[in-house]
C-alpha cells in the first residue's frame, strides 16, 4: 500500500521515463560489451565505448526509485533488507551458475576458478582491478558487469541509517553525506581501498535520492536537489585535481575514470532535472509499454549477458549468438521476475 501511495506522487510520464532509462541503459551495456569483444569499438562503434556511464545512470535511478518507494518503509530495516535481498540475489545466483557452466563448456573452469572470487562476489566485495587500485577481489569467473553490484549493495545497506538521520535533520544529513563522500575519495587517493571508493560513489546515489525528494516536494529543476548536488560538483573538482597529481593513464583508467564518472553524473542531473527533462519525459511516455517490459528484466540482462554473449565460445558464430540471445532473454525473465516469488516476503506494516 505504501509503495502504491508513493507511486501516485510520481506521474505516469515520469515512471515511463524511468523505465525507458533503465531499459536503454541495460541494452547499452550489453551492446558495449559485445562491441568490445568483437573489436567494433572504432568508427561508428565509438558510440558504444561508454558502458560505465550507463552504470552511473543505474546508480542515479536506484537512488531515485529506492528513496521514492522506501522513504517511509526503510526505517524498518528488516523488511527493507529482505526486499533488497529478493531483488539482488536470485538473478545474481543464476549469473554465477551460468558463468560456471560457460567456463566448464569453454574448458577453462579450473584455470579461472578462484574460491575468493566466488565468496567475494557473493559478499559483494568485487570490482575491476585492471581499471583501478585497491580492489579486494575481481568478479567471479570474469563476469565484469558484476563490479557495480558491490557498490549497489553497499548503498542499500547504508540507506536506512542515512535515512533516519535525514528524517531528523535533512540539511545536516545532506552536508554530512557530502563531507563523508568527498573525504572518502581523498582517502582513496592517499590509500586506495574498496570501502573509501564505495563511500565516494554513494554521493552519486544520494543525489538520485534527493532528486526524488525534490520531485515529490514539487520541484522541477536541479535546484530542488539541494546541497548534495553542490557536493557532487565539489567531488568533481577533487577528482579532477587528482588526475595531474597521480598521472593520466587513459580515459578508461584511474584516476581519470573516476573523474569521468562524477562529471557525467553531475551533467546528467543538470541536463535532465529541468524543463528539457520534462519535455523528454513527455516524448518517452509514448514508449511506456515496451520500455516497461524491457525494464522489468533489465537487471537480469545486466548480470547474465557477459558470460552468454561475450565469454561463451560457442556463442561467437551467428547461429550461436542467436541461441545465446534467446537463452539470455529467457533466463533474464525467469531470474528477474519469477525466482523472487519463491522467497519469503517482508511483513506489511
Explain what the structure shows.
The chain is an all-alpha fold. It has one domain (11-342). Helix content is 72%, strand content 0%. It contains 15 helices and no strands. The relative contact order is 0.15. Mean pLDDT is 92; it is low at 1-8.
Topology:
Blueprint: H1 2-9, H2 12-37, H3 51-70, H4 77-106, H5 109-112, H6 115-122, H7 147-168, H8 170-190, H9 194-216, H10 227-246, H11 256-272, H12 275-284, H13 288-295, H14 298-311, H15 318-338
Helix pairs in contact: 2-3, 2-12, 2-13, 2-14, 3-9, 3-11, 4-7, 4-14, 4-15, 7-8, 7-9, 8-9, 8-10, 9-10, 9-11, 10-11, 14-15
Low-confidence stretches: 1-8
Question: Structural class of the secondary elements?
Answer: mainly alpha
Total strands: the figure is: 0
Q: What is Rg?
A: 20 Å
How are helices and strands ordered from N to C? HHHHHHHHHHHHHHH
Residue-averaged pLDDT: 92
Question: How large is the share of residues in beta strands?
Answer: under 5%
Note the quaternary state here: single chain
Amino-to-carboxy terminus distance: 9 Å
